[in-house]
Amino acid sequence: MTMQKGTEPKEAGTAVFWDRAQAQFRATADLLDLDESCRHVLGKCRRVVEIACPIRMDDGVIRSFRGYRAQHSSHRGPFKGGIRYHPEVTKEEVMALAMLMTWKCAVVNVPFCGGKGGVACNPQQMTAHEIERLTRRYTKELMPIIGPETDIPAPDVNTNAQIMAWIQDTYAMEVRSSSLGVVTGKPISLGGSVGRHDATSRGCFFTCLKALGMSNLTPATARLVTQGFGNAGYHMCKLWSQAGGKVLAVSTSRGGIYNEQGLDIEAAKKHYSDQRSLLDFKGGDQITNAELLTLDCEVLCPAALEGAITEANAADVRARIVAEAANGPTTAEADLILQDKGVLVIPDILANAGGVSVSYFEWVQGLTNFFWKEADVHSRLQEIMEAAFDAVQEESKKRGVSMREGAMALAVSRVANAFATRGLWP
Ligand code: NAD
Fold first, then answer.
1. Which of 136, 180, 272, 292 could be joined to 191 by an S-S link, Cβ 3.0–4.6 Å?
2. Cα–Cα distances in angstroms (integers) from residue 351 to residues 97, 193, 292, 399, 421, in the given order
3. From the candidates 10, 91, 104, 116, which is the catalytic residue?
4. Which of ligand 1's atoms lies nearest the C-alpha of 256?
5. What topology does CATH give the domain 199-351?
6. Diameter of the chain by CA atoms?
7. pTM over 0.85
8. 303 touches ligand 1 (CB under 6 Å)
């Protein structure tokens, strides 16, 4: 199995990320004039599980890794969200990401709410067998709270279809059923959906098409810069190139590459796969991640980790559009600076919601044992993303606020409505 390489420590404090998620919710609650009880319930995670995952390493030594699963709200459906393997995963980080997932599912109107999990580990320093043992132990520990009708994990940073297959297999062995619906982002051979591998980027691409259209631009007349060259970043670049657009720069945690004439994305991908880095790539000049974020371009797509665009660099961003393929890449302070500069930010809960939308399709296919054609997946995704983009635009215009605030208002009001309609038990 090939694991993603090259992840380095994150810059943003994860406790700050959780504070930011809560502050964003409070601001939206004020905008919507939500009552106290609703604020009280939706402002917290319903459940956060912290577990030890001891495993035997290949050298025989036993090591214990810290794992988490946060479940924010289940008012609109089962919990849904990715699992991240990263040395700096924390409880606060998964809580923030779980809350974001609730709003994201509501923006695209899929019947899920937010969950997120992670294990603090460095998969670059682990063998495939160690990662498998860790995944199975983590799954076993989560057995009481995950399941096709309760909480459905998916891939995120440093996790992939193979890891989902191990989760599904472990769960299926324990409950003695095929359990196709317990994870999404599975391999096609195990009931995964065609079109899931690039769904996050395809959804982001569709929102970019809408945003570009507002200025009479298309990918062919707009230059893209992408931070992060993993699942989200690479497929975004690929779709852009396929649409005849120029991708000026891409990066990984170890730095990036830049070519004013446009990069050969497949060559860069091959180099990254072979070398586990973009260093020494011949088709472009080396640049730092800091330089990349301030390049002259029409669309900047942060597709790595949270906290990439901050107070320190937002004023220097030269893109017209920031399409947040990553979760939480722009800090609140940076958001205000971008707004003042007139940069259109397509917020994460809209821009990267294509992943969870096709996860929803995969879940439906698994539950019904009826599998769709790729063209159907793409067209239904496009329909969802365009409708969500229009609904967010309308909400933003109606309230005279940014797209992020409009998306939050739309999402929180949908969840609050579900909360009020369900009432409380007992
Ligand atoms: P991935 O592990 O496949 O790729 C992450 C990429 O980011 C790698 O190329 C890595 O080198 C790079 N990176 C890490 N730290 C960096 C840094 N400091 N500077 C520059 N690059 C850095 O992960 P992914 O699945 O592509 O996820 C990326 C982002 O997209 C995350 O925020 C994730 O939550 C979000 N997201 C992913 C999905 C999905 O379906 N994969 C869905 C929604 C949101």
1. 180
2. 15, 20, 20, 20, 28
3. 116
4. 20
5. Rossmann fold (3.40.50)
6. 65
7. yes
8. yes
